[in-house]
Design a protein that fits this description.
Layout lengths: L9 H12 L5 E2 L10 E3 L4 E6 L19 H24 L3 E6 L7 H18 L1
Parallel strand pairs: 3-4
Antiparallel strand pairs: 1-2, 2-3
């Protein structure tokens, strides 16, 4: 467990580098916002969460496999993460923020460019509104 990173994970770095290369400027881990979003684009009133498929229980994803041992610990832990994510997103929506979630599996292989392009397009669309 001590080897697992909370911040600056490879998927986060991929998203941040892509957005920066497209000219978007942002802050990371804004502790003033509920849920501590991974990327905050204040100008666009947008937050981006880059979630690991295992830790946030991504539905129908091969990377989301429950461990076979110590299930009394893991199942409640992951379910709490999912409930917390729902609460945080609901609260951010109330405050008027646009919320995007990028899953770890969406940044693998051929899906990566499509996912990042789609995210960029949605952020730019939110700027117009």
């Amino acid at each position: 467990m001590s080897k697992i990173r909370k911040t600056d994970t490879k998927p986060e770095l991929l998203v941040r580098k892509y957005l920066f290369s497209k000219g978007l400027r942002f802050r990371i881990y804004n502790k003033k916002l509920i849920g501590n979003p991974d990327i905050v684009l204040s100008k666009h009133k947008t937050v981006v969460f880059v979630n690991g498929c295992f830790w946030h229980a991504h539905k129908n994803c091969k990377l989301n496999r429950m461990p076979k041992s110590n299930t009394d610990y893991w199942i409640p832990k992951i379910l709490k993460n999912v409930e917390r994510d729902k609460r945080n997103k609901k609260e951010l929506k109330k405050l008027g923020w646009n919320i995007f979630t990028i899953w770890e599996c969406e940044l693998r292989g051929k899906k990566r460019e499509k996912t990042l392009t789609k995210l960029y397009r949605k952020i730019k669309e939110s700027e117009i509104r």
